[in-house]
Amino acid sequence: MANDDGPEDLLTTATRHVREGEERVARQEARLAALIRNGHHDAAARGAKVLEQMRLSLDLARRHLEFELRKQAQK
Fold first, then answer.
1. How far apart are CA 46 and CA 61, in angstroms?
2. pTM for the whole thing?
3. What whole-number percentage of the chain has pLDDT above 90?
4. Residue 4 placed within a domain
5. pLDDT tier at 70, thresholds 50, 70, 90
6. Is residue 66 one of the residues assigned to a domain?
7. Which domain holds residue 17?
């Protein structure tokens, strides 16, 4: 997301994507735990599939961040 100072650079964007992804995964984990705790096993199974995809997305964001950090280190 851009701020009032202009658009973000790629490293800032990658960092933000990882942070936001980690927050989303944590929220989904909490939702999943609540579903299981309350006996909503079918919904929990679907939620677990969503969580798996979210974790894959987070992994991609982390890889992108690592790439951007390596680029910065080479400058």
1. 23
2. 0.85
3. 87
4. no
5. very high
6. yes
7. 11-70
pLDDT score recorded for residue 7? 76
Q: Are 33 and 41 in contact (CB under 8 A)?
A: no
Alpha carbon distance 64, 15 (integer Å)? 9
Residue 5 covered by a domain = no
Q: For 48-64, write each residue's pLDDT tens digit.
A: 999 999 999 999 999 99
SS3 letters across 24-72: HHHHHHHHHHHHHHCCCHHHHHHHHHHHHHHHHHHHHHHHHHHHHHHHH
Number of structural domains the chain divides into: 1
Residue 49, in any domain of the structure: yes
